[in-house]
């Protein structure tokens, strides 16, 4: 039988505010345990939440970026459950009146085709603390630094049909949140986390199959693997005559399998009700307008502008604007160097190759955009050949300083003094009489040999254009 | 509306409250009484009435996004039953 997969993703994004969603504690990652947990975060009796204006702003910015309805009146609710990393015994979230309603994003698939994935809603809530199970015999350690970090939970429609589409959608959301600067999107640090709802049904059937939820998939790579694995498990169970139990499963990346989280004695019953400690959040048209005005340029608009202003191909424009960090870097290189095309070549070529090799992000590049721009200037003004420029680039990655200093220190300046080049050419001609004779009797291909010899003699520093010109004349005899 | 025993047990479980056998009859009766009050409220025609999120006719005041809290971990952990290496310790919980 042919099966169709139906996937919906729930993505939790930590908003990059300075302070928590309902308290004045810092949200900085990596602090000593419980040093960023205030009385509100600890759920001390009488401590009351006060909503963070910036969390609201960031949530609305996301809504606008995915063309969604914005909840002009949003309401916080309590989701009740007991777990030690949730000291209040409830999570403050939004149920019936989320801040962001229906929206959509467009994803681009490998074959270049596009699909629109619906976003059901996105709501604000608080993150829980962390439970550490390893260190203490028979006990768990609780760190509440993360408790109260603002989260935006982005819920997709069950529009996704393959694991690859799920990854493309996740990447798209990642690109949007980092572009508009509402989150650092760092999956390794848990700034972006993903749960996947997966089910299968016979192709053509309208009714959805029973779904399972895979929890806490924390890298782009694992999303694809975890979903593919879970889909195959569904199909195997059903084809063996069994049926899928609706449950939550954990993905184990080491074993590439999902396993049931110990089934709870009772079905979850979160007994949502409106949070009495917080009043409804009312925003008006003017507020939304102000957020819209402050919104930076989104990826699709940037691609168009790169093509129009810099004369880039659609492919190049897409590559360079895939992340805001690279797009900003590229534009800074263009500004310093004054040549958009060469800047694009270096950003997509040498720079990207280097970043990939070192497995670092452009934000961590040891070469600043300004220095790369200066390097390109030195190519444009004939100080460096492309080849020597790559040597300088290597030196820059080693932290040897700005391009001019490296060129000076290593004596890499391109030789453009024609008398110097002539002298080198004369030497080469004198040293290779046989080849000169062959060339003059019609072996044109030998021209490359002479260019090579001259470049070698100049340690690669002679201007190739000048070498060509002078060599041609001299070889004519 | 009168509750049955299994409903009370379920609610008790959700609230992590232990109800001893000899308390069950009383609890059942009290909760059933409360539920009949709820029934009375439920009987009111609320057609076309927006559910109330808060009885105050007011809207949220927002806080500026500033860190205003400093570290008082040692003070807070004085009243914790058990804390070690900066962590609060609880009986082992694992899914």
Provide an overview of this structure.
The complex is a heterodimer of chains A (477) and B (95). Chain A has 477 residues and is α+β, with helices and mostly antiparallel strands. Chain A has 3 domains: 3-289, no CATH class; 297-410, no CATH class; 418-476, Orthogonal Bundle (Arc Repressor Mutant, subunit A). Chain A contains 15 helices and 15 strands. An 8-stranded mixed beta sheet of chain A has the order 5-6-9-1-10-11-12-13. In chain A, strands 4-3-14 form a 3-stranded antiparallel beta sheet, with no helix packed on it. A two-stranded antiparallel sheet of chain A has the order 2-15. The mean pLDDT of chain A is 92. By secondary structure, chain B is mostly helical. Chain B has a domain at 5-42. Helices cover 37% and strands 7% of the residues of chain B. Chain B is built from 3 helices and 2 strands. Chain B has helices at 5-14, 24-42, 73-78, and strands at residues 83-84, 87-91. A two-stranded antiparallel ribbon of chain B has the order 1-2. In chain B, a hairpin with a 2-residue loop joins strand 1 and strand 2 (87-91). The mean pLDDT of chain B is 91. Chains A and B meet through helix 1, strand 8 and strand 15 of A and helix 1, helix 3 and strand 2 of B.
